[in-house]
């Protein structure tokens, strides 16, 4: 039986996996979400010896079940190749009492590579399957990493165009240069004068603009998304949680069947939602620990049951988590409400009109899986230093947020279940933050910091950063949030 993906806001809007990937966002504003969990045979005594590609095939064939075996093999083999600097793709490193799942070995040194390496292949394959010959325009907002990883994946892919919006003063210098120096005739990068939430809100509005959709179709063009709103982004993230568990079994750190916790630095909620789906297909999970920075809207939600975005937006040293509207939480809300699209839609509309909503009558068994906490800027910096002093290992600030929240969780609960930290970026993405935390000295700029980081960490400067300082800046457009659609129409010649 084919797995059905339904909009979180309309029970009659049901599609297959390839249709969901192609559309990206449901036309009613909802997110396509599986209404049942596929059965996956997770035999970890066998999987401990499987390659990342083999685990990917097992998981993706269950969730993307309208793809043929040949189609999935093509997508997986094209994605997880020498673009990654280790054959393990996502190695697990033991650091004291925690295990860091390194998700930054791809071409842009952030966890977004794990899914955005495969999304272009899933998307173009979906278009062929659905008989669509329109140009696919990837329209996306980024808080720092999605944009570069998406552009790297889609650059010069035939039949596609990609337009990325990012907050002008809301990303690191390295992140900005990675985007603005991106090559590819079909890539466009636009800085906006607002924040990430402003960018994401207007991207969602454009997806749901009927007049714009018709204008696009008249030019044989249609939108799709590279954000984790697209199930083609979300589902491949499930893979690395299964793989991490298998690697812990292989190393003898746990026995198959023993529970583990996952601590995930969380902004848009896609990464930790993938961990939830991993638990639902059979990964033995104790707790999913949702780690926030000072924009702690998710911590407050799990603590109080009220999601309240009416608060000051803080720019932190972990910018990919500087988010007040966590889009993927809508999918969890949908499940918490028993897959009730009417109730979910009402809450999401209340968030827009009133800036908050309160969850009631939620599935307590699902809620009980989640813990939440946040780390201040000072705690994040101190955690980078603590881990370095203990292990000669430098975490990026997002990973350090998760690490600090995990340490506080253990102190509070006494829960010493083996715990995997989702390590979402290389410290080379945020060299000044990392070096200042370790040395106590503020480097003059990002590139001085890069050289200092190499000395401190003993890790060779990755290709993604090496030479970035002298690369040609190709994308220089800056617009007000109100002019985002105008920029899109100009790029596409509408």
Question: What would the keywords be for this entry?
Answer:
494 residues, single chain, 16 strands, alpha/beta, 6-stranded mixed β-sheet
Write the layout of secondary structure elements.
Blueprint (H helix, E strand, L loop, with lengths): L4 E3 L2 E6 L1 H7 L8 E3 L9 H4 L4 H12 L5 H11 L12 E4 L2 E5 L9 H5 L2 H11 L5 E7 L4 H9 L5 E8 L5 H8 L6 E6 L3 H12 L2 H9 L2 E4 L6 H20 L9 E6 L4 H11 L4 E8 L4 H8 L1 E3 L20 H8 L4 H14 L1 E3 L5 H4 L2 E5 L2 H15 L5 H17 L5 E5 L7 H9 L6 H12 L19 E3 L4 H9 L2
Parallel strand pairs: 5-15, 6-7, 6-9, 7-8, 8-16, 10-11, 10-15, 11-14
Antiparallel strand pairs: 1-2, 1-3, 4-5, 12-13
Describe this structure in words.
- The structure is a single chain.
- This protein has 494 residues and is an alpha/beta fold.
- 44% of the residues lie in helices and 16% in strands.
- The protein contains 21 helices and 16 strands.
- It has helices spanning 17-23, 44-47, 52-63, 69-79, 112-116, 119-129, 146-154, 173-180, 196-207, 210-218, 231-250, 270-280, 297-304, 329-336, 341-354, 364-367, 377-391, 397-413, 431-439, 446-457, 484-492; strands at 5-7, 10-15, 32-34, 92-95, 98-102, 135-141, 160-167, 187-192, 221-224, 260-265, 285-292, 306-308, 356-358, 370-374, 419-423, 477-479.
- The strands form 4 sheets. It has a 6-stranded mixed beta sheet, sandwiched between helices.
- Helix 1 (17-23) packs across helix 6 (119-129), helix 17 (377-391) crosses helix 18 and helix 17 (377-391) crosses helix 19.
- The longest helix has 20 residues, at 231-250.
- It starts with a strand and ends with a helix.
- The mean pLDDT is 95.
């Amino acid at each position: 039986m084919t797995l059905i993906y339904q909009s979180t806001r309309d029970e009659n809007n049901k599609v297959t996996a390839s249709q969901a990937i192609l559309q990206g966002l449901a036309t009613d504003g909802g997110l396509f979400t599986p209404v049942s969990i596929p059965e996956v045979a997770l035999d970890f005594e066998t999987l401990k010896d499987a390659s990342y590609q083999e685990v990917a095939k097992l998981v993706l064939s269950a969730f993307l079940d309208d793809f043929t075996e040949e189609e999935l093999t093509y997508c997986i083999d094209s994605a997880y190749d020498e673009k990654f600097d280790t054959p393990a793709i996502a190695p697990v490193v033991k650091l004291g009492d925690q295990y860091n799942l390194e998700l930054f070995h791809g071409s842009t040194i952030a966890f977004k590579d794990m899914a955005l390496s495969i999304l272009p292949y899933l998307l173009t394959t979906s278009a062929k399957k659905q008989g669509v010959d329109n140009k696919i325009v990837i329209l996306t907002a980024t808080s720092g990493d999605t944009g570069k990883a998406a552009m790297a994946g889609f650059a010069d892919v035939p039949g596609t165009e990609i337009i990325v919006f990012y907050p002008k003063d809301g990303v690191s210098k390295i992140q900005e240069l990675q985007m603005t120096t991106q090559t590819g005739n079909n890539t466009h990068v636009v800085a906006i004068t607002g924040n990430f939430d402003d960018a994401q809100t207007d991207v969602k509005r454009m997806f749901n603009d009927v007049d714009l959709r018709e204008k696009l179709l008249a030019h044989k063009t249609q939108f799709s998304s590279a954000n984790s709103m697209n199930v083609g982004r979300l589902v491949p993230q499930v893979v690395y949680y299964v793989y991490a568990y298998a690697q812990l079994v292989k190393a003898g750190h746990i026995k198959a069947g023993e529970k583990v916790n996952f601590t995930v630095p969380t902004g848009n909620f896609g990464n930790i939602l993938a961990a939830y789906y991993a638990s639902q297909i059979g990964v033995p999970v104790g707790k999913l620990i949702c780690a926030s920075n000072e924009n702690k809207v998710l911590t407050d939600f799990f603590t109080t049951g009220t999601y309240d975005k009416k608060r000051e937006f803080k720019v932190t040293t972990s910018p990919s988590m500087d988010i007040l509207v966590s889009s993927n939480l809508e999918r969890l809300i949908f499940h918490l409400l028993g897959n009730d699209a009417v109730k979910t839609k009402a809450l999401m509309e209340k968030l827009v009109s009133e800036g908050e909503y309160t969850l009631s009558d939620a599935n307590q068994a699902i809620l009980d899986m989640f813990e939440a906490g946040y780390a201040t800027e000072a705690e994040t910096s101190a955690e980078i230093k603590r881990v370095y002093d203990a292990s000669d290992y430098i975490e990026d600030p997002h990973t350090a947020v998760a690490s600090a929240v995990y340490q506080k969780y253990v102190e509070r609960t006494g829960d010493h279940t083996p715990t995997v930290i989702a390590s979402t970026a290389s410290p080379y993405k945020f060299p000044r933050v990392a070096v200042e935390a370790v040395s106590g000295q503020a480097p003059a700029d990002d590139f001085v910091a890069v050289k200092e980081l190499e000395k401190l960490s003993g890790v060779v400067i990755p290709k993604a950063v090496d030479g970035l300082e002298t690369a040609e800046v190709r994308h220089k457009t800056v617009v007000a949030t109100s002019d985002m659609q105008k920029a899109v129409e100009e790029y596409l010649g509408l």
